[in-house]
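User: Could you check the structure of this?
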Amino acid sequence: MALTDIKVRTAKASDKTYKLTDGDGMHLQVKPNGAKYWRLQYRFYGKQKDFALGVYPEVSLAAARRKRDDARKLIANGIDPNEQKKAGKVEQLSDGNTFEFVARAWHASNKKWSESHSAHVLKSLEVCLFPVIGARHIAELDTQDLLKPIKAVEMSGRLEVASRLQQRTTAIMRYAVQSGMIKYNPGQEMAGAIAIGKRLHRPALDFDRIPELLQRLDSYTGRKLTTLAVKLTLLVFIRSSELRFARWSEIDFQRAMWTIPGERESIDNVKFSQRGSKMHTTHLVPLSRQAVEILREIHDISGENELIFIGDHHSSKPMSENTVNKALRVMGYDTKTEVCGHGFRAMACSALIESGLWSRDGVERQMSHQERNSVRAAYIHKAEHLDERRLMLQWWADYLDANREGAVSPFDFAKKE
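Assistant: Sure, the predicted structure tokens are below.
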């Protein structure tokens, strides 16, 4: 039964604190000393919470009910009234204090991103985060608030996307702390809350199947440029987009060097054509004698064009992203379980390591992998190991040639050197 003014006014103190219920979660809490407090009980994202509505008689029954109704409206809109109160924002939130406003400011502050990566990051925020917490005040957001949209992405099975959203959300809240908007970063407490997806390992052939691969390549009857693209990919083991969007201006035949820029000039109506090196820094690829020979053959086909690997129908467009894998399928390989173009990287990396000839830094630099240890990276980021890498790429090309005569392991071939 709802309270009345008389019942509230005449409520007497007792030995213990007791409650008089009004309705919709509101009650009057009567203390042993006779003090009377209005309280609202509510659940917010599964948590039972208590919100202070004021002290009687300063706040009357009618006034307490109005405060209760206002608080319930906030809850219905996904806003915790306690956090709202802490932030001192009982009034309507201004755009400058919302998560979306802060997120966009954080996004704009990242000047080192490539144009494509910057657009990708913003799109992920607009699609996954802003619809849920974008209008919320930055100071009222707790860990559970931040996790809610990320968990939804995780539950959809997109674990990698969820993991990146967690990182970006934490960075946004860190930016808010550094900008003086909040004093504590609740994003820090999200660590371990999102499942980590299993890293997908691209299929690669065992070393004893390399002679078979080379034989099938030599017997391939498809487009000549496609054959040469597969052969070159095997020799230089760079990433698909690094190969597809390559320009002749990047090749120095005299120095036998391929310089892949961090970002390329985009091609009209070709998605991701501005991609260069995945690490967004210049990547140098020493060219073996065999690689130079193949590039000269390709030059006879597409040398008059800007692109090295021109498309089937338009010389101003690059070859399809499926070209290499499609050729491997025509050769009889299952590109999901046996070998794919990206798997050539794993084959080369494994062989270089197993040979015992090359330093870890030299191999990692040639693979264009990012150093995960930030302290170590500070010391080696300028080390190119070019002399070693020239020898390394030539060794790999010679090793492949040696397998034409029969399977030989990298270790055994290294001993013959």
